[in-house]
Design brief:
Blueprint: H1 2-21, E1 28-29, E2 39-44, H2 48-60, E3 66-69, E4 97-101, E5 114-118, H3 137-147, H4 151-154, H5 164-173, E6 176-178, H6 182-188, H7 194-197, E7 205-207, H8 216-225, E8 241-244, H9 259-265, E9 274-277, E10 280-286, E11 298-303, E12 312-314, E13 316-322, H10 328-335, E14 338-339, H11 341-346, E15 353-354, E16 369-374, H12 390-400, E17 416-421, H13 430-441, H14 462-480, E18 485-490, E19 496-498, E20 500-501, E21 509-511, E22 522-524, H15 532-545, H16 551-554, E23 558-562, H17 570-580, E24 615-617, H18 632-659
Parallel strand pairs: 1-9, 2-3, 2-13, 3-9, 6-7, 13-24, 14-15
Antiparallel strand pairs: 4-5, 8-17, 10-11, 11-12, 16-19, 16-23, 17-18, 18-20, 21-22
Helix pairs in contact: 2-9, 2-18, 3-14, 5-18, 13-14, 15-17
Signal peptide: 1-21
GO biological process, one term: secondary metabolite biosynthetic process
GO molecular function, one term: oxidoreductase activity, acting on CH-OH group of donors
């Protein structure tokens, strides 16, 4: 019965994919003239969180109208490794995306960070690596710690807090997990705890692929040689050790599962109150007479298909929700006059709300990679270079189109990783924690005061400095926890391992381009501006190099290529890290942080922008701090929890109005 149900779902998904690929789906709006006179809710951005909220609001309030305005359009979003790719090569053939390049990073050889964002219905869930993990419970509890100190956060009931316990039900609600068939589970040695995934029915599908490359279990054995324990399941908040991680893909077809399908295409035909306007940019929100207490604001948009068409204002009667992503959300707010007052004045934008945290607190995962070669042939089969053999490639393509799908194309990029706490990597971790704590506690004027590690335009703002000091103190405690991961290394084939710093101390900024406010915002990543990040990168690199010397790897004569045998001193290691640094693993966050205003926050626990009526932010920009995992599952959970908050509020308000 379960298999039959999944086969029906697979057929439905294939039909949906064909529908979504059509450029003229009648349900999609392309001109302002097709819209209603007003909407109850307007959402800026059809991304991971935005479509989650739109789905839930249109479901909860069938007599209320919901509009989503999206910069991109409806496209088919292939998986990370789908035909016609022959060897996995990244995101070259994925759905449309924004390409962001940062300003030069002075502390790392003036290099620049390159990152991406989805420019399509579905947002970054349409282009990400499909790695469907959650953070550690300690990450979300750390959010709660940095939010402390304000009545609006301290007075919350336990279920309303943004802790692990407060988010866990929404993690489970946000997805549908399907266990692999017994034969596949035994072949690949998959383990999981079904309780942690719950019995959700949301059509955001998570599953384990039936395929692995031939050397995968070799590396898992090498990690065990190093004493890393095998965690049965890492989705329940306990996330240290070797973990299997499901992919965001349908369990039968192995096609990408993302918000453009699960929260739009799958529901649009039954929701007459749910409109989607594509190829339009939300430029700003406008408060009548510049009074942010008079909301909700108007939403100003422009057509991207017709540059000569006039700007249009849309009216919301309940809430405007900005969900444009980590880089575009602060840009919309800044164009609206909501942001750091000194910068807004410099950019010629009238100040509506002086909110220094808008575009501040930028964080992303970063790190170098190590590589090696085998000098003794191993019986690893199949391997990626087998895809260059015509017969193997043809069979891989045929297998992908079978029902259920099989073969290499069912594996996205990776579905396994190690997560290692700092105390488990080195016995010399205390000096690193001491450095962080000294910076956090240093008095103003001290050479170690936290302000010196912020950008020059932020050092004089007491709220940003106070918030950064508090974050550093919380991160020090997080890094001291022997169960809280500091490093992630995902398994990918290719004789290389990436070393991901999970809790960076450096903070960057996002600002409008002062020459053209509608162009791509300027990203100042400021990676390793806090030098303790280098200390952590060095610990990670030394630790991961040990895998090459394990008995499992040495039986194949493994030889290190990077950093290389000649790299041994701290100075040489530091040069290696700077030279090989990847500045973004596409996990940027935190630029409209959910924190008290006194600590540089932009939104409160109800996701309302501080001081602005009828305006909320719901996307990864509201994360207070980066977490030990990839971001999509948390973005879905934040969208679910936000929708729950909004639904409860408006049910209460509209019920009271009906009684008057």
């Amino acid at each position: 019965m379960v298999l039959l149900r999944l086969l029906v779902l697979a057929t439905h998904l294939a039909a949906v994919a064909k529908t979504v690929a059509l450029p003229h789906d009648a349900s999609v709006k392309r001109q302002v003239s097709q819209l209603r006179d007003s909407y109850d809710f307007i959402i800026a951005g059809a991304g991971t969180s935005g479509l989650t909220v739109a789905d839930r609001l249109s479901e909860a309030f069938p007599t209320k109208s919901v509009l989503v305005v999206e910069y991109g359009t409806v496209e088919y979003a292939p998986g990370v490794f789908d035909p016609p790719e022959v060897v996995w090569s990244g995101s070259g053939h994925l759905a449309s995306s924004f390409n962001f390049q940062s300003l030069p990073i002075p502390d790392v050889l003036n290099k620049t960070a390159l990152t991406f964002g989805g420019k399509v219905v579905g947002g970054s869930s349409a282009i990400n690596g499909m790695f469907a993990d959650r953070g550690s419970r300690y990450d979300y509890n750390a959010w709660d710690q940095v939010q402390a100190g304000s009545p609006e956060f301290d007075g919350l009931k336990s279920n309303d807090r943004w802790t692990w316990d407060g988010l866990y039900p929404f993690f489970k609600k946000s997805i549908t997990f399907t266990a692999p068939p017994v034969a596949v589970a035994e072949k690949q040695r998959y383990t999981w705890n079904a309780t942690n995934f719950g019995g959700g029915t949301t059509p955001i599908y998570l599953s384990f692929p039936e395929f692995q490359w031939g050397d995968h279990h070799l590396l898992r054995a090498a990690w065990r040689d190093m004493g890393i324990w095998v965690n049965q399941d890492c989705a329940g908040g306990d996330k240290d050790g070797i973990c299997w991680v499901p992919n965001s893909q349908h369990p039968v077809t192995a096609r990408r599962s993302y918000s453009g399908l699960g929260h739009y295409a799958d529901v649009k035909d039954s929701r007459k109150n749910y409109d989607l306007l594509v190829k339009h940019q939300v430029t700003r929100v406008i408060y009548p007479n510049g009074n942010p207490r008079s909301g909700p604001p108007l939403v100003e948009i422009r057509s991207l298909d017709n540059a000569t068409s006039p700007l249009s204002n849309l009216t919301a009667t309940a809430d405007v929700i900005i969900s444009a992503g980590v880089f575009h959300t602060p840009a919309i707010l800044q164009r609206s006059g909501i942001g750091p007052a000194p910068f807004l004045r410099t950019a010629g934008i009238p100040v509506v709300i002086d909110l220094p945290g808008v575009g501040s607190n930028l964080q992303d995962h970063s790190g170098p990679r190590i590589t090696w070669n085998y000098t003794i042939p191993g019986n690893f089969s199949p391997m990626p270079d087998d895809m260059l053999k015509p017969a193997f490639a043809a069979d891989a393509l045929a297998g992908f189109n079978e029902t259920p799908a099989r073969g290499p194309y069912t594996l996205a990029m990776s579905n396994s990783a190690i997560y290692v706490p700092l105390p488990n990597m080195t016995i010399e971790y205390s000096p690193i924690l001491d450095k962080i704590r000294r910076i956090s506690a240093a008095a103003n004027g001290s050479s170690e005061h936290a302000a010196r590690y912020l950008s020059p335009d932020q050092r004089s703002d007491p709220t940003l400095v106070a918030g950064y000091q508090h974050q550093l103190a919380v991160i020090a405690d997080l890094l001291a926890n022997p169960k809280a991961p500091c490093l992630e290394t995902a398994f990918t084939t290719g004789l290389a391992l990436s070393l991901m710093l999970l809790h960076p101390l450096s903070r960057g900024t996002v600002r409008l381009d002062p020459k053209d406010h509608l162009q791509m915002p300027l990203l100042d990543y400021r990676s390793a501006s806090n030098p303790v990040d280098f200390d952590l990168h060095l610990v990670h690199t030394r630790y991961i190099r040990r895998v090459i010397q394990t008995p499992t790897m040495q039986q194949y004569g493994t030889v290190e290529v990077l950093p290389g045998a000649n790299v041994s001193t701290d100075a040489q290691m530091l040069d290696f890290v700077k030279d090989q640094m990847v500045f973004s693993y596409m996990h940027a966050c935190c630029t409209a942080a959910m924190l008290p205003r006194s600590k540089g926050g932009v939104v409160g626990p109800d996701l309302k922008v501080h001081g602005a009526r009828g305006l909320r932010v719901v996307d990864a920009s509201v994360f207070p701090m980066l977490l030990s995992g990839h971001l999509s599952m948390t973005a879905y959970a934040v969208g679910e929890k936000a929708a729950d908050i909004i639904v409860r509020q408006w049910r209460k308000e509209w019920a009271m109005k009906e009684q008057e």
